Amino acid sequence: MIVVTGATGNVGRPLVAALAAAGGRVTAVARRIAAADVPAGVRHHPADLARPADLAPALAGARGLFLLTAGDYLASGADLGAALDVARRAGVRRVVLLSSQGVGAGVHPSGFEDAVTGSGLEWTLLRPGNFQSNALQWAESVRKERTVAAPFGDVAVPAVHPGDIAEVAAAALREDGHAGAVYELTGPAPISPREQAAAIAGALGEPVGFTELTRAQARAGMVRFMPEAVADGTLDLLGTPPPDLLPVRPDVPRVLGRPARTFAAWAAANADAFR
What is the value of pTM for the model shown? Predict the structure, then answer.
């Protein structure tokens, strides 16, 4: 059995679906989760990584664990090592951590990665760049006004499809040969916010305008739903990406045996969110 934390999110949901479709037993874990959130036959269990003891019932009989740590968990100073201790006592052998390219670039702390690599379990680290699904933050403005507002309109990085992250995670959890690997996951080409707006317009078949925000305007919106330090770090990355975050990386096609999916493909598959 494989346990997936963050199972209702942009990566966790397709990961649960991929594991279930492959015929494995899966337990989906999130702070708030119900049977309607998971495919038929998938067990679900409400738990919070910040309270590691909550995980113990979900981990009984598990051999693999996918760890997703949300921004508020990072900001809380929670101890991921405690959750890993619970997993190890439950008999888990393999753990896959969803980390960030920012760790490898030295702009995000490495504490969670250190906890995983020092856990004594067979580990794999996934370091995705910017998620294509972050464009959902523009869904309301596109629906109401047919416009996208974002800072740094022409700064391009290779955003990654969350479904590709999920498929790489599924491979690392199900297959041998990924132990000790650190996968940097990107899309197939750099794309700027202005170009993303154009791709959304293409998916809708209607014009979508673009308004460039100042850093201060963007920050004022971001701190409504994330800690100030996380907002500032995110804006630093968006405005002046470290050189390590700019190249297209080969790990998605290397693991999956196919090209990474484009932002245009993501926009087409999610066009209803913008209509």
Answer: 0.92
